[in-house]
Amino acid sequence: MPLDVNDFRFWRAFRSVSAKQMFRTWDFLTAVSLGVLSSFLYSHFVPQATTQVAVAGDFVAIAGALFGVVIAGFAIAAALLDERYARALRAKKQSSYNLLRHFLVEGGLLVTSLTVTLIYRAIAQPVYTLSHLSAHLMFGAAVFFFFWSLFGALQLMTLVLGVAVTSTELFSVPKDERDTA
After folding, report:
1. What is the DSSP secondary-structure string of 44-102?
2. How many domains are contained in the chain?
């Protein structure tokens, strides 16, 4: 089936991942918990917006580096998808797109995390003077997206490991079995 550029856009990849795969996972639920908990704890024990902005600055540096890691992981996984791997995927009625789309979705999540955190850092002080609650909720959103993208990057590491192990295992399968698998 011929593919065009629209087949590789972010929103197509995002929509192709089921809600269960996105939202009913340990990484999402843990990130929600950490976002709510940190928003509550920071609002009660460290109410200064300057401290929260400084913590959010750490998120920017870490998420930016993680974006590079996701791109490198994508390159590794794509490089490991050789002819043997493609045949094995076809035999299981799968495609390389189903495997690699997770990198695009995670990259989008990291970009969202960076964007939310940068916006928070830019407007936290003025918002804090108008509404402490709004500033703390915004901080909670930045924490949530940061940890969701952090844990998502960890999930991608397991995906790269799985691709690498499967790829090396395909070398040990005799050629006649590979052709029929």
Report:
1. HH---HHHHHHHHHHHHHHHHHHHHHHHHHHHHHHHH--HHHHHHHHHTT--HHHHHHH
2. 1
Q: What residue numbers bound the domain in which 76 lies?
A: 29-37+48-167
Q: Are 123 and 29 in contact (CB under 8 A)?
A: no
In a domain? residue 174: no
User: End-to-end alpha-carbon separation of the chain, Å?
Assistant: 21
Q: Is the distance from CB of 116 to CB of 141 less than 8 angstroms? A: yes
pLDDT in tens, 146-178: 999 999 999 999 988 988 888 888 877 666 655
Q: Flag whether 110 is in a domain.
A: yes
Q: What is the mean pLDDT of residues 96-100?
A: 85
158 in a structural domain: yes
